[in-house]
Amino acid sequence: xxxxxxxxxxxxxxxxxxxxxxxxxxxxxxxxxxxxxxxxxxxxxxxxxxxxxxxxxxxxxxxxxxxxxxxxxxxxxxxxxxxxxxxxxxxxxxxxxxxxxxxxxxxxxxxxxxxxxxxxxxxxxxxxxxxxxxxxxxxxxxxxxxxxxxxxxxxxxxxxxxxxxxxxxxxxxxxxxxxxxxxxxxxxxxxxxxxxxxxxxxxxxxxxxxxxxxxxxxxxxxxxxxxxxxxxxxxxxxxxxxxxxxxxxxxxxxxxxxxxxxxxxxxxxxxxxxxxxxxxxxxxxxxxxxxxxxxxxx
Amino acid sequence: xxxxxxxxxxxxxxxxxxxxxxxxxxxxxxxxxxxxxxxxxxxxxxxxxxxxxxxxxxxxxxxxxxxxxxxxxxxxxxxxxxxxxxxxxxxxxxxxxxxxxxxxxxxxxxxxxxxxxxxxxxxxxxxxxxxxxxxxxxxxxxxxxxxxxxxxxxxxxxxxxxxxxxxxxxxxxxxxxxxxxxxxxxxxxxxxxxxxxxxxxxxxxxxxxxxxxxxxxxxxxxxxxxxxxxxxxxxxxxxxxxxxxxxxxxxxxxxxxxxxxxxxxxxxxxxxxxxxxxxxxxxxxxxxxxxxxxxxxxxxxxxxxxxxxxxxxxxxxxxxxxxxxxxxxxxxxxxxxxxxxxxxxxxxxxxxxxxx
Lengths: 298, 356
Description:
- The structure holds 2 protein chains of 2 kinds.
- Chain A is an all-alpha fold.
- Chain A folds into 2 domains: 1-41; 69-123 and 167-297, MetI-like fold, CATH 1.10.3720.
- Chain A has 12 helices and no strands.
- In chain A, helix 3 crosses helix 9 (206-234) and helix 11 (255-264) packs antiparallel against helix 12.
- The two termini of chain A are 49 Å apart.
- By secondary structure, chain B is α+β, with helices and mostly antiparallel strands.
- Chain B folds into 2 domains: 4-233, Rossmann fold (3-Layer(aba) Sandwich), CATH 3.40.50.300; 240-348, CATH 2.40.50.140.
- In chain B, helix 2 (92-102) packs across helix 3 (107-120), helix 2 runs parallel beside helix 4 (136-149) and helix 3 (107-120) packs across helix 4 (136-149).
- Chain B is elongated, with a radius of gyration of 24 Å.
- Chain A binds chain B through residues 192, 194-195, 197-205, 208, 212-213, 216-217, and chain B through 50-52, 71-74, 77-79, 81-83, 85-90, 98-99, 101-103, 146, 150.
């Protein structure tokens, strides 16, 4: 009896020691993860602006305001539409590029490294550079178009409401297609060569081979890549911020830019907290839904 | 049904000459085995026939028609890969049906063909499973099933048994042979395993460094090897090579350890200075029963396998293995008297390695 309790105590001691070991890590995670999140939720129920020191709670007023905020829904629509446009283009271009690099070729590593360069550039720098590229007077894009067209062009890429989104799309696709390329290259290199040869001998068309062999083999990897990129695109901020600042007007305002504007231009701290919570809620729901799908597929 | 012809086929990989001027005639319905050590060009040759590799020069013809410019799908061949190359995301049924679907067969035809193949290979119970749910042997059967459902002119098998364990391999070997008998199609089978080559082939083509060293019926190659390489490659344990000297008059052989034995072998044309390499297979030895014996050996290691026993001894540094009757009482470190079946031994030139 006394022996078993002493064993029990030893086990308790051991467990306590384990908790002690992970305590610092848990503390840091709580501090930088959970605390701001709770603070965010609290703030969204308060009445904080930067104009006064009113910190009173006002219930769901900010959340009610979300529903009537046309600018908010417009920015969400921008975000969704841009994600829906950019993602397939990045996948397709990345896939085609990866196909090019599947076969052995001289200096392959060097070429891959060069292709990957855009992704290692800071988005802020990339955005600023693309704004210069698209500048209507000095930008090389207009000059190239002028050269090809044979006459002077003054396309207002970062101002014209019909040209700003294509310009941002070019910058974003330029920067992130290499990411898709790299992941798809790795996935495609792992497709079993003998299976492809066997399909060749069986007489399968390109489409049949792709649908029955290649696509199922790369789907898990492709899925993760799409998820990462989708999350990136939903919180897209820096490239647009540097290229157009969300303008003209609110034409290129995404949800992130709108939340930023609300917090640091309009100083509506509590309201922007409510927006941020909405975004977090939506993204979490998206991720959970996506992971479910993966598990079902398995 | 067409026969296969290879005419002066060459294949270079960059600077490597993998297949060197190989010509081969395969009549319809023959079971031919390409065998050789790794890197001898046998797989390259098979893949060239399949159209998975382009040949550098020469011609491959099926039924008199050149197929070198045809893509694999138009050559009407079927292939079984070493890794099986089953499609992991399709069921066994769909794996077998794949080639038929690709060729737009009707659902009824597909079902009939798959049923026929799966019954023949005894995999009818697994049709709705996925390849990952099958054992190695079952996967192998599916791979074969996928090859036989299409009415291909030519079956190419690339080391199909090398991923199986020894026991399964023996069983599948027999089944492949039976399959060939039933289908009456041309089989080209690549292996590095000389036992598979000997047991399966109607004709063996033995390759080394991209060159056909010798081709012919298995026993012909076994009994009358053209050179030291062929003699050493076929047979397990392999042939013993002993440097000997024919004594003046050609009546006796002097072994490296000084023993001499009366020579009644078939060597008629004595090489200059009488030295040559004497090829004796383990089974050419037998324990001397009566008074007379050909040579004495100090057995160093005994390896009983149950059905037969191998005893190793050395003759002045030359390692020799003799196959002995399993019931002989032999112990290591004992001297025994051996007889040699002189008529069946082989003699090779010391310099060129060619058989006399």
